[in-house]
Amino acid sequence: MVASILISISAVVSAVLVGFVARRIIGTAVGWPRSIVVGLLVFVLGVPSAAWTLRQTGLGAAGDTIPAEEVWLWVGLVALSLAWVFALGVAALVASEAIFPTRAMPNPIDLVRAALRQRKRTRRYLEILTIASRHGVGWLFHGGRSQVEEQLSTSEERANAIVATINDAGVTFVKLGQVLSSRRDLVPEPYLSALASLQTNATTLPWSTVRQVIEADLGTTIDQVFADVEPTPLAAASVAQVHRARLLDGTHVVVKVQRPAARAQVEADADIIGRLAHRAEARTRVGRDLRLEAVTRGFTATLLEELDYRIEARNTLMIGATLDEIDRAEPGRRGVVAAPRVFPSASHQRVLTMELVDGTALSDSADRLSAMDAAQRDRLAQVLMSTVIEQILVYGVFHADLHPGNVLLRTDGTLGMIDFGAVGIIERSRRQHLTALLLAALSENDVAAADALLLIVDVPDDLDFDAFRHDVGVVLTTEHLRTTGHGSIFTRMVDVIRQHRIALPGELASAFRSFATLEGCLRVLVDDFDMAGRALPLMPMLLRRTLSLSRMVTDLQAQSVIALARLEQVPRRLDALLTGAEKGSIGITLRGQDGSDISGILARATGEIASTLVSIAAVVIAVVLVIAGGGPVLGGSITLFAVLGAVIGLFGFLGLLRIVRRGFTRRS
């Protein structure tokens, strides 16, 4: 009974010890089930291995009595034999871990939840593929062509089929398509025009649901914030709907309320869109040309941001601040172009309350515009143009979706901007380059325009500069001579950028699009409005505001302070350098592109190489010593060199296992 207990305890200790040593060598978690199995094998094989070693050396013959002077040798051989069995067991455990790494057991609840999410995602994924196949655009995802797809022989037919698929796929895909329709630098015709036709028609939510969203988001009852809210929505879309309302102080406002399921639907579809984009880019030329995977990754992130109305409130406040600055500089045009006020106390993540802009969209104001005199329409166009250009070039904050539907003709004959879910922000250094580009384009200087454009884009290594400058020059020349049509010099410039596969940063793409859509708004106000000719006289004034004397002095002061601070550090650094040279302790720190310290790479590599060579040398020496034998006889047939070989080989073997550990560490 006692013997059985001792054997069991020894087996458990062996299993635990093998697992512990293997974990220390590998440096990562090792599964205990396999550790126990290997440990038991080590325990079972340990005693027979020791007995076999003693028999081979002549010290373990049956019935022989061990002389007192050889007891120490017998114990050493047993220990050495057990150590080798133990080392081989650890090696087996390391090898099994390398081939079949241990994986953490997942939580059963997490498994169930993941399975439900996977089932839901798979069902939605199959639904989207079915819609795509029904409209004949399954080739976007699987690369094949069915009989229906063969009928889409022209680009126009394929573009219309894609739009039909997007319309049927739901709100997230429609929003993504609408965003893509603004990226002329990525999407060619006729896909661009087709995407621009996307609509987000939606049924209205019942007032009880809307009221619950408002009260839950604001954290109070609706009567504590609003005097009244019209239950019938002013407008409804797939993400939100808008209601007229009146604050407690009598201010007339509009309340934008997000649909309860909008965020969940966008989040659920975002992963599917990423997977579809990956497949489309990997399997189709259109996907590769549009760089769909990277584009959709950025756009889905933008869509999720737009669902937070606190961001839109901040955008509206920034646009309002730029309009105040512009009006302060030119009081004569104050109020001609305005943005609604935001009421933060009545707004939050899913509810946005803004001042009511009473008017109609420019796209629906043809009758009112025709009733206005030409001078009034011309002044509206001139002020709108100068306002948007100044927002972009001077302040760097502008409406990134400025189309005739987002500019209202108010009842008093002035203009109001609305819908600031997308606002572009350009830093000052890029604004200066953009100003230079606009000046060069307006003055038809193709060389300067091409050079300025290359300063603000990511230039590919294989760009043909001469061909690029030629194409830019062709655009400038033809646009300056063209007197009819509703095209835009900025859309054609973006076409040139796309044709030469130049990556245009998102904020600059928004600026170019704003210039182009601004021209569309201006021609709604005045049919033959010459934006290029009207903008050129504005440039000296905008340059003065961008490069004002006070700003230049401030910049010079800032640069002087920075230079002085760096100059003050020179004596201390020079003293440290000389002191280090005197003591012989000067060192060099190497850093990678990400700023991490890589100066120790050479030392670590040298150490690893040295450890590897030493371990291999130890194993080789051990083999030579064991095979050659020789040296003093310690007892039986055991020689000193054979014992040394076994010991040195054991340490070399353990050294090789430590090298395996470093490999595991790098992998994890």
From TrEMBL:
Source organism superkingdom: Bacteria
Q: Which PANTHER family match?
A: CHAPERONE-ACTIVITY OF BC1 COMPLEX CABC1 -RELATED, PROTEIN ACTIVITY OF BC1 COMPLEX KINASE 7, CHLOROPLASTIC
Pfam families, per database record:
ABC1
Query: Residue limits of the ABC1 atypical kinase-like domain?
Result: 198-446
| Segments crossing the lipid bilayer | 6-23, 35-52, 72-95, 609-628, 634-657
Keywords in UniProt for this one? Membrane, Transmembrane, Transmembrane helix, Ubiquinone
Protein name, per record: Ubiquinone biosynthesis protein
Concerning its family, UniProt says: Belongs to the protein kinase superfamily. ADCK protein kinase family.
InterPro entries in the cross-refs: ABC1_dom (IPR004147), Kinase-like_dom_sf (IPR011009), UbiB_kinase (IPR050154)
